[in-house]
Design brief:
Chains A, B, C, D: It catalyses: L-ribulose 5-phosphate = D-xylulose 5-phosphate. Chains A, B, C, D: Its cofactor is Zn(2+). Chains A, B, C, D: One of its GO terms (biological process) is pentose catabolic process. Chains A, B, C, D: It comes from Cecembia rubra. Four copies of one chain form a homotetramer. By secondary structure, the first copy, chain A, is of the alpha+beta class. Chain A has a single domain, classed as Class II aldolase/adducin N-terminal domain (L-fuculose-1-phosphate Aldolase), CATH 3.40.225.10. Chain A has an eight-stranded mixed β-sheet with strand order 4-3-2-1-5-8-7-6, sandwiched between helices.
Chain lengths: 232, 232, 232, 232
């Protein structure tokens, strides 16, 4: 019943070590099936080299395990919360990739400096402020979902267009139409994070990318008249 | 008819991931056939691991597709413009390699600090200023070609000797006698960009390479009495 | 008699080059058998690609070779001292990994900046001050063990909870319930060291991780009610 | 007649790409046979993946080709000069490795910050000042040998103990009892150069390694009573 979903989730998870985005078990990817009202997610603490399709856990939006013998990722409630509130996303990826985490630890948005960034989103990459203590001590992973959504509301940005966030002092979450796109966004974020770090080292006064270039690069890939790719 | 050209273009493109110069589809290489008045270029948005020789697109200097079922790279007009105006170049490579992009985002020329640089060119690596808005909103990729050529005219430098440029806020373009040499120059540029970054971190007052060393190293490889290599 | 211990020690040592933690012979791992009162350790100066299980040396806590034809690691006395005084540790790993060594050479504790750090320990990673000259000129490797233990006493921290240290001007030592866990801690330390370096480059005023997040992340993995992993 | 020497030189050269010390053809290794009064060296401009044992060139100390169909490395005269004047060295390696070149371009000695450095040498790694113009325009590669020897005379250091140098604005040369040891020293130098760079980024006031630790670490590996390694 959930075979295809688990297989898709499994394959996306296995991309993480190949892309250099995780050491050991520091990451997890999920994929949702909106019709069935469930998502598939990596089990907690299992090394990637031991992970098998049948280990993937099926969970509903209220965090109940629907299928699977293992405990799901400790971040499951964050995934559930985001799926519940953002109806357009199909996959979520969380890693502790080096450069993205470093910006998150610095508690800084990643400024938009170049077209590599604008090829994927039109704003700085937002960094959500660390939670207040009462929320940390409460239902922490659920509240992390809330923290991300609040950040997007405050900044008035759209998760369908900005598919990534840094959780301050913690690290990146990314999403997309499916698990594979969420992983793609994690890899892109890591590259943008590294380039932005280097850019500021070379020129602390490096200018923000000009609006016309942001518009041009984003639209040629994602606009109504996009002409990047094979149009399918 | 175009088999050899497509094969050569294909092989040069496939070098990019092996050399660590691209993630996903962030790059494209072309090679020209001056007699036939066409060039071969990567199709747009196709991952390198799926790319096949038969996917390579043949385009003329007015951006007409001469052969191929796929849409050519979104940067095709930049390639066409450069081939049209610079009669001596045979291949062009565009990447978003990490260190070269970071200098482009910093909008800084890469200073000539050492003999690794002088083994390949005698000037700083030029960074072209970002375009004015009207040109961005116009025929952007065509104008990117213009932007590069204008940069060389302004600085009075010769594209036969300086086979690389940074497009400000965007990234590097390199060229050479064929596609393979263009890719070689992209790899060399990335290394020079990393070394120059580190040099300034270690010593913000690092001196420009002295003129006699620039001359010596460039000439022993490229001068009339060059003695580097096997002379063939 | 010591086969299992040697095999386990061998496998942990062979992880080091795969994890990118050593060049040449710059590292050593040991594992203890408390009942037999001995530990297994890498022989001195043997390249990893030549190392065989039978080369592993068995040593007691007074540095006597119990079994083995080779000379044990030159750091053997440090291992022996730590095993003798810290009854709860089962394996020790010493490397010269790049970022951890750089913090050790900077003679700085690694500040706790994020949850990657707090997933593993609740304090800054301590850097022990370089030894006084008389101790260096005395029984140096034995005194290095003393130096590490003194550092933990001074800072009033518990080696069962803080499984890593930087020896100032030298490099990292890590430990754990067995050799494999000690190696795991070395890899984690290297990653934390790199992230902390980058964090301070991006934001020299980056704040220490707040106490509530330290507690939360450490406890969800290691506390009485830990819910990370499969609970086995 | 020269088979063994060529084979040994070939194998040392082939280490360079595996150790990440070269891109393309940016390096060369030689090995001397003192009895025969010749050395074996890489041919100029040949990519490592095409290099064969029979391509290695045999040259005498006056730069005459004794055997080989190819042109020897463009740096051959530097090797010859060093072999002629330093009777104790058996192999030489020259690369453009990233971090060592960056220190050379910064025209800075690499300070001795830690025991990784002291395990190999007891002084800062010297950076030779760039040559005066008349010498650059003269017999440049011969004069580079002179420049290195002058640097050691000025600083009153011994090439048998300090087996590496940075040629200012250019890059590293290393040597040792044979070609393989020279390559080993190039890899060690690159690591020390990276660590020293990072150390100063973390702590611009990082202290020089104390004299007692320099002595201890150097002597336990190289002193009369060395106890590192298997003593053979």
């Amino acid at each position: 019943m959930y075979e295809k979903l688990k297989e898709s989730c499994y394959r996306a998870n296995m991309q993480l070590p190949r892309l250099g985005l995780v050491v050991y078990t520091f990451g997890n990817v999920s994929e949702v099936d909106r019709e069935m009202g469930v998502f598939a997610i990596k089990p907690s603490g299992i090394p990637y080299e031991e992970l098998r399709v049948e280990d993937i856990v099926i969970v509903d939006f209220n965090n109940n395990i629907v299928e699977g013998k293992m405990r799901p990722s400790s971040d499951t409630k964050t995934h559930a919360f985001l799926y519940k509130h953002w109806k357009n996303i199909g996959g979520i990826c969380h890693t502790h990739s080096t450069y993205a985490v470093s910006w998150a630890q610095a508690i800084k948005d990643i400024p938009i400096f170049g077209t590599t960034h604008a090829d994927h989103l039109t704003t700085d990459i937002p960094c959500a402020s660390p939670m207040v203590d009462s929320l940390i001590e409460g239902d922490y992973e659920h509240n992390t979902g809330q923290q991300i959504i609040d950040c997007f509301l405050e900044k008035n940005i759209d998760p369908s267009a900005i598919e990534m966030v840094l959780v301050g002092s913690h690290g990146p979450f990314t999403w997309g139409k499916d698990a594979s796109k969420a992983v793609y966004n994690s890899r892109v974020l890591e590259e943008i994070a590294k380039m932005a770090f280097l850019t500021l080292q070379i020129n602390p006064q490096a200018p923000r990318l000009k609006e016309a270039l942001i518009r041009k690069h984003y639209d040629r890939k994602h606009g109504a008249n996009a002409y990047y790719g094979q149009g399918c």
